């Protein structure tokens, strides 16, 4: 597992692996108070659905 501090290199890595036929999984750690607003924006823009699993702090 690799953790990126910035979204741009993370998405480049996803694209790089996807092009080569690998299956990748991406998650974003977002503070709980921001999830509602981000979920609405992403659902509208990208058709995504939020996952509400609790992730322990890193």
The level of helicity is 40-55%
Mean pLDDT: 79
Q: What is the tally of beta strands?
A: 0
Shape: globular
Radius of gyration: 13 Å
Characterize the largest beta sheet: strand count, sense, and whether it forms a barrel.
none
H/E series: HH
Query: Which spans of ≥5 residues are poorly predicted at pLDDT below 50?
Result: none
Strand content: under 5%
What is the number of helices?
2
Structural class: mainly alpha
Tell me the distance between the termini: 13 Å
Please describe what this structure looks like.
This protein is mainly alpha-helical and about 60 residues long. The protein has two helices and no strands. The radius of gyration is 13 Å and the shape is globular. The model has no long low-confidence stretch (mean pLDDT about 80).
């Amino acid at each position: 597992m690799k953790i990126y501090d910035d979204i741009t290199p993370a998405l480049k890595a996803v694209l790089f692996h996807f092009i080569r036929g690998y299956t990748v999984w991406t998650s974003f750690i977002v503070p709980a108070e921001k999830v509602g607003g981000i979920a609405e924006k992403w659902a509208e823009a990208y058709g995504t659905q939020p996952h509400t699993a609790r992730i322990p702090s890193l």
